[in-house]
Amino acid sequence: MTVVGSGRVSGAPDVLRATFGVEHFGPDVAAAVARVGERTDLVIAALRAHGVEESRLGTSTVNVFQHYREPGADVGYQASHTIQVESKDLGGFGALLNAAVDAAGNNLTLNGIQFDIEDKSELLTQARELAFQQARAKAEHLAGLAGFSLGSVSAIAENQGHFPIHRAYNASKAALDSAINVVPGDSSVEVTLEVHFAWA
């Protein structure tokens, strides 16, 4: 007999992840890339000055592409550099945002933030226990309905999922000038077990 059980456990997040972008449109590739490189260096320096460790800063994407406009208009080029930032200071997002805005000006975009739990091992253990308890309870119920006795477990398959708290933003400096009130909620992990029982 095969049954499925699931367990979900929530906990308080302990890490903030933000995605900043630096973009620039220029008349040629060299100008666009140079501007983005200059502004990106300033953003990284500003974030480091606000306590973000070097190991928690990294590039996620770099793009350069031709920007097509109306027929007859000059061709331009769009360059962008996306930076992933992690911080253990959940209440310090405003300071990081202001530092990035001051460094990049209108070249800055904020693509989203996420509150998460860095080490999920304890929550996964709890969720796994709940999932197995649910699976066994289902199996015992079904065995009783069928008039059989439940035997030992012959196989188990596991799937995991986690649900961090996302705050999606896609804005330029003009939209970031007003305060953004960010409040972390609980982050959840879920374990699903497919359990195979033998008959006694």
Structure explained in plain terms:
With 200 residues, this protein is α+β, with helices and mostly antiparallel strands. The chain has four helices and eight strands. The protein has helices at 29-49, 93-104, 121-146, 173-176, and strands at residues 2-11, 15-26, 57-67, 76-87, 108-116, 150-163, 165-167, 187-199. The strands form two sheets. The chain has a five-stranded antiparallel β-sheet with strand order 3-4-2-5-7, with helices on one face. A hairpin with an 8-residue loop joins strand 3 (57-67) and strand 4. Helix 1 runs antiparallel to helix 2.
* First-to-last CA distance: 11 Å
Going by helix content, strand content and strand pairing, the class is alpha+beta
The overall pLDDT, averaged over residues, is: 88
The biggest sheet amounts to: 5 strands, antiparallel
Labels describing this entry:
alpha+beta; 200 residues; 3-stranded antiparallel β-sheet
Write a compact overview of the structure shown.
With 200 residues, the protein is an alpha+beta fold. The protein has helices spanning 29-49, 93-104, 121-146, 173-176; strands spanning 2-11, 15-26, 57-67, 76-87, 108-116, 150-163, 165-167, 187-199. The strands form two sheets. The protein has a five-stranded antiparallel beta sheet, covered by helices on one side.
SSE inventory with pairings:
Layout: E1 2-11, E2 15-26, H1 29-49, E3 57-67, E4 76-87, H2 93-104, E5 108-116, H3 121-146, E6 150-163, E7 165-167, H4 173-176, E8 187-199
Antiparallel strand pairs: 1-8, 2-4, 2-5, 3-4, 5-7, 6-8
Helix pairs in contact: 1-2
